[in-house]
Design goal:
By secondary structure, this protein is mainly α. The chain has helices spanning about 5-25, 35-50, 50-55, 60-70, 85-95, 110-120. Helix 2 (about 35-50) packs across helix 6 and helix 5 crosses helix 6.
Length: about 130
Amino acid sequence: MSRRTKHCLGAGVCLLAAGGWALAQGATPPSPPPADMQAAAGGKIFGKWCGDCHSTPGGSGSQALQRKYRGDIPDILEQRTDLNPDYVRHVVRHGVSFMPSFRKTEISDADLSLVATYLAPSPGRADRVTKRP
């Protein structure tokens, strides 16, 4: 084993030991970002991947939903209050009707979870509609 490899391994062991010591001393692991930060991140991802089709009445996705539901429920996804996160994930991964599926290399599972949470019903959700230029 080379001298450089030994130093790298030694440094790694020291870092692991320090991390374990910090946790043993009552340090808490980092917490997930607050819900409003997650919503903002989900909205940004939604705007990038979904907004062109689903954020305006003239978008192809909105028009398809308008025809399907005949105005009984909103055709703009951000205005819906009935979207289950599991359903959103399924539709994004598998597509439906004219909507294509999106691979994990396009929208990661983590990003898709943020979008699904963003679209899920929650208090104050009506205030987070993405504004399109």
